[in-house]
Amino acid sequence: MAAEEILETVDHYKSEIERLTKELTETTHEKIQAAEYGLVVLEEKLTLKQQYDELEAEYDVLKQELEQLREAFGQSFSVHRKVAEDGETREETLLQESASKEAYYLAKILEMQSELKQSRTVVTNVQAENERLTAIVQDLKENNHGTIPNRK
Predict the structure, then answer these.
(1) Whole-angstrom Cα distance, residue 38 to residue 126?
(2) Using CA atoms, how far apart are residues 115 and 126, in angstroms rounded to an integer?
(3) How far apart are CA 126 and CA 91, in angstroms?
(4) How far apart are CA 70 and CA 76, in angstroms?
(5) Taken in order 12, 17, 20, 22, is the CA torsion positive or negative?
(6) Which end of the chain has fewer CB atoms within 10 angstroms, the N or the C?
(7) How far apart are CA 15 and CA 88, in angstroms?
(8) pTM (2 decimals)?
(9) Is the pLDDT of residue 109 over 70?
């Protein structure tokens, strides 16, 4: 009778070990998937950060060009007053070109500001998703540690 009970206990332990091994495998697989997704999110975040930095640099360049155009416009206007008799037609052409460029750069700056805001929103969303995934991974780790028997 004792041998029969020992066999039942051994069978019970074997089935419990199989069940725990299966759970551990599933949990490890889920953990790996979460980590892989987290890496993808991090890569996307880095790509978006790089795009954001590039847009911001381009925005700064365009802003500086606009300031230079405004200065050139002011200088052009001063010159126009000094030589109004000789260059009235030429000056009007320069003013139109400057105004056209200024309108173009202002439109480009507004477009880039919009893209910058969108990029910031995407970065914020990616950061929130990353934090959520980090919390999931932490929960999985905690759950995983609670289900793994100590093997000594």
Answers:
(1) 10
(2) 16
(3) 51
(4) 10
(5) negative
(6) C
(7) 98
(8) 0.37
(9) yes
